[in-house]
Amino acid sequence: MNLKSIALVFFAAGALSASAGRPQVVAHRGYWNAPGSAQNSIRGLIKADSIGADAVELDVWLSADSVLYVNHDPDFKGVNIEKSTSETLSQLRLDNGEPLPTLDSYLEVAKGLKPDLVVEMKTHSDPQREDIAVPMVIDMIAEKGLTDRTSYITFSRNSFDNLVAMSGRPVQFLSATEPAMLDRIGGDGADYHISVFRTNPHWFKELRDLGKTINIWTVNSAADIQYCIDHGADYITTDAPELAMELVEKSCAPRNLRIMTYNLRFGELAVMDRIASEIKAYNPDFVAIQEVDANANRTAAKTNRGLNYVSELAQRTGMFGYYGRAIDFAGGYYGIGILSRYPAEKIEKFELPNPGNEEPRVLLMGTFEMPGQKLVFASTHFDYRHHGTRKKQAQFVTEKMMESPYPAILAGDFNATNGQIYIETIKAKMKDLTNDRKTWPADVPQDKLDFIFAYPPKDFELKACIVPEPAKNTASDHLPVVSDIVVTF
Ligand code: MG
């Protein structure tokens, strides 16, 4: 089975593929930190189910007489599991009074419950014992009808190779290994300690770029859990599943946003108060603005010349404002901007490709901090004259959005219409969150040039798109585009 088909099976089973999204909460050794529970107990499995945990992690050993047991350490209460028979092991009691569970008894209960299973194959004293244990586990899980709900983890390279070859299920390696090396040895992904990711935060992106899933253990504090959510972990393995679920719920709940894009025609056609009140009337969360002057003595902008438009609009709308200069103009600057209800963690500006040597254009891209969630929002304005330039610009902005570790929205004036290669290049990867209403020129619209796109498409839904009716004496030569969207983090 190749990686792609594993990912498909994985997705079909309700678990996540390697992309940013809602992480799965894995109760480490079951939900043991609860009244009446114990580590790797059947009670801990039932408790995890009762709180709605996405998955339960369990550890598996093979006894001397080839019975599979669920336990973390090689020894339990001084009895070595590998060296003991089931006659001895069946006498042992967990701290909550349950017998030391066999894998069979554990799976029998798991069958009737909802959590997926993350089965850790322990590193045995002899690889040959692992060679016996791995197919036994795979067969038993299949007999119980649990194959589609199971993934595997292990520190043992021997068991890892066996599981990858035999299970047909996602297998994650527990031994911290560089992403490129992990890719060479195969499997579905990484299951590393939180300290490994804290030390190597670039591994998040490297693993994702390689199509690897990311599982992180043992993530118990609110700060560590939030770190994993913010960095797009696919699984959070935790001794505090209720806290993790609460934070995931808070951080990853669908959120309604209103997005606006508006080309301001360098403020030639209306006073700043009118432009600001038009924007404010829509009460948007994010606005991409184009043809924005800053301190430029533009003759045609009679009432607005010399003003810093972003600062003026930010102040009048009560939003945060960010400016991206494209060129120097009339003693100031000409470019684009972003207005946001939320503060930016980071703002970057990129020069767009310009093979036709046209007027320079830019992409202004920010990472914005909303409560418990981060979103990338970008504004742009494409060239309007040169085919090769716009084509390159479409490829460039699409790639930039796809590199984002967070859900990403790109809005602007693309100087292109549906059906043209520039727009179709973007739509091949991103979701169009607008309707077909024409936006330019504002009095008698002929073309739709203004769009709002989002990546990854599966995280976004368009609820409604508003384009005001054409009119004489509009505040710009473009009509604004305003979309109500739902984003799932
Ligand atoms: Mg374990």
Please give a quick description of this structure.
The chain is α/β, with parallel strands linked by helices and 489 residues long.
Please give a structural write-up.
With 489 residues, this protein is of the alpha/beta class. It folds into two domains: 24-250, Alpha-Beta Barrel (TIM Barrel), CATH 3.20.20; 255-487, Endonuclease/exonuclease/phosphatase (Deoxyribonuclease I, Chain A). It has 15 helices and 23 strands. Strands 1-2-6-7-8-9-10-11 form an eight-stranded parallel beta barrel, surrounded by seven helices. A hairpin with a 5-residue loop joins strand 2 and strand 3. It is elongated and about 95 Å long. Mean pLDDT is 94; it is low at 1-20. Bound molecules: magnesium ion. Magnesium ion binds at residues 57, 59, 120.
